[in-house]
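Write out this protein's structure.
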Amino acid sequence: MILRIFFAVGNISFMGENAVQYRVESLKDLAIIINHFNKYPLITKKQAYYTLFISAYSLIKNKSHLTNKGILELVALKAVLNRGLSKDLGVAFPDIVPALRPEVLLSKVVDPF
């Protein structure tokens, strides 16, 4: 719930006894969170996934995902994010080549605050 309060966007759903889901669905609200992570970048290897996520966000924001080329790019990004492609997406896009995960050089934390 702290994330919902901090960002002032999104919704909280309780997913059972020990799980909570924080979901942001609009591009406008998602931009608030993206601005935060652009200002305070991740300092772990998760930065690579953030970079891929930003690529997907940009495709959708610019409506490029509505073209054949754009949807293929989006599916290629999905193939390397989280759990990869679902069975249905794998069947629908059997020849998709997953996007390359960017290499992230880890930097030392200068100031933890």
